[in-house]
Amino acid sequence: MHHQVTDVIGPMRTNAAMGAGIPLWLKIAWSAWIVVWAPVYWKQYGAQNFLFFCDLGNIFIAVALWGESRLIFSWQAVGLLLVQTLYALDLIGAFLFSKHAIGGTEYMFDPAIPLLTRLLGLYHLVVPPFLLWAVRHLGYDRRAWKWQTITACIIVPISYFWRPQFNVNWARGIGQEQHLVPGGMYLVGYMVVASAVVYWPTHLFLLWWDGRTNRGAYNARGQRLSGKLPKISAD
Length: 235
Prior knowledge:
The protein is mainly α. Helices cover about 65% and strands about 0% of the residues.
């Protein structure tokens, strides 16, 4: 446990020592937004809603901002970048063409949900470019894929058993509860597919994204060292 905690906290100290320099106004702005967003969402949707990776990610991002943590930003980018980009595309498409090509954003146009709650939900549009900026600014930590996979293996089973009627993170089925295979088999398949089909390709993309301007060597803790390498491996 001590080793795992050090894995997360250690990069914060390293980044701070290197003067990563995330603007103070950005840290304060995100924190202020969390103070408004969290109670509104809790009242509207309930506590289980904070198990959604996107909502949980907002809190992790706040921690990453104040700690200037390469690992936590990278970890959240692996977990959120693809899904939130698809969400943003569906929302923008529905706004422009009144059609949901992907789905999942219908609630944003539901007049029964208070306007403030829906406006706060626009954070989904901000998170993908923000995470890309953070990874470019601080660098990508290659341990992120492992940490996101572990996160899914913890959060998805909790979502499955706690308040199952809400089907948080599609823990019981895509869109609605599935009955084609036993629940345990679905859970295992979910976590394997998420790790291999969503998180791993995103990990490779982020290696490339970071490497466009930062081609350096990495130590065993995923921290970039000085010097140049002609190629970044996908270790």
